[in-house]
Amino acid sequence: MPTHPHAPRGVIAPGQLFVDDQGAVAQLHGVGIQRFGGRFYAWGEDKTSAGTFGGVACYSSPDLATWTAHGHALAVSPDVPDLAPGRVVERPKVLRNPDGKFVMFLHVDSADYAYARVGWAVAERPEGPYTYLRSERPLGNISRDIGVFVDHDGTDDDGTGYLLSEDREHGLHIYRLSADYLAVEEIVATTLTPPSDHPAGPHGYESPALVKVDGLYYLFGSELTGWSTNDNKVATASSPAGPWSDWADFAPSGSATYDSQTSTIVTVQGSQCTSHVYVGDRWDRDDLFHSAPVWLPVRIADGAARLEWRDAWTVDPVTGVIA
Ligand code: DGJ
Question: Pfam families, per this entry (predicted)?
Fold first, then answer.
């Protein structure tokens, strides 16, 4: 059993590690999460090699708390330059495209973060194995932290796909994806941090996540402070194209988002209610492998979002109720 503080299986305890079915520390860092066929799948950065690529680890869970390991969905590959040892591959996010294929998006970079691209990989099953396709700078723009979003119109397997991408030279972009999600088609919006915060020029947030609640879009992100945490923000719009509102805190100001950085927001649609789960990382730059998850209920309604601290909690995947 891990020596670092860890949650009992079946419980979410912010600041404590998840232990998987093998008794190992779940590598749920920079994670993407989707629900397929009633089960939650998570793809995380395996930080075995600290800041450089150690593989994309896949886990599944019935309840966002009891994680089963499925090994590497995408492994280190010395023959593939983008996936070679010593490279940086972060924030794996997966969407199921209208053809039923699982499409993985990645922040693909060099160790000095100068390469700044988005990468694609595809698989027949959520847990992989994924076949790596390529990387690019979308429409010529640098791309570091990413998020993904599908605007569903009521059915499970269709909807317009979007890529969220941090480009500090221009701002945080929302790109519309092609119908199969394998290419970027156009920029629908570019959001910026308040220019007064960055008088030298554009900036914008990173660690982006987008959710739609009651017809309103909520865009989450963090300031660009490396592995250090900051007061993450949320903005709203009635369309992904905006116009986007001013940015607001969604955790107590000065708490640095309870000392965490946004990774994704999970919607748990239940029979009694729809709950939202903030999935964040509390990075430990000296021991990234043991960086703790900070996952909390986030109340999203009427144009505002609010993180609610809990020492330990669960969400019922059937009813949606948080306890
Ligand atoms: C902040 C990003 O959000 C993380 O994913 C990671 O790239 C760190 N920067 C590296 O400093």
Answer: Glyco_hydro_43
Output b/e per residue, 54-73; b: 16+ Cβ within 10 A: bbbbbbbbebbbbbebbebb
CA distances from 169 to 38, 45, 94, 243, 247 (A): 40, 26, 26, 20, 19
Nearest-CA residue for atom 9 of ligand 1? 226
Domain spans of the chain, in order of start: 29-307
Return phi, psi of residue 257, to 5°: 55, 50
| 321 phi/psi in degrees, rounded to 5 | -80, 135
Which residue in 3, 53, 54, 52 sits closest to 24, CA to CA?
A: 3
- Could you tell which of 108, 228, 264, 283 is best to mutate to test the pocket of ligand 1, judged by most ligand atoms within 8 Å of the CB? 283
Q: How far does CA 179 lie from the centroid of its chain? A: 21
CA dist., res. 81 & res. 219, Å (int)? 33
Is residue 1 over pLDDT 80? Answer: no
Q: Tell me the per-residue pLDDT of 185-199, one tens digit each, with 9 for 90 and over.
A: 999 999 998 888 888
Cβ neighbours, 10 Å, residue 246 = 8
208: pLDDT strictly greater than 80: yes
Residue holding tokens 């865009």? 219
| Edge-to-edge order in the sheet of strand 248-249 | 206-213, 216-222, 233-237, 248-249
- The whole-model pTM stands at 0.97
Q: How far is CA 30 from CA 27, 159, 217, 282, in A?
A: 9, 24, 22, 10
Q: Which of 91, 115, 232 maximizes ligand 1 atoms within 8 Å of its Cβ, making it the mutation to test the pocket?
A: 91
Q: Which fold has domain 29-307?
A: Tachylectin-2; Chain A (2.115.10)
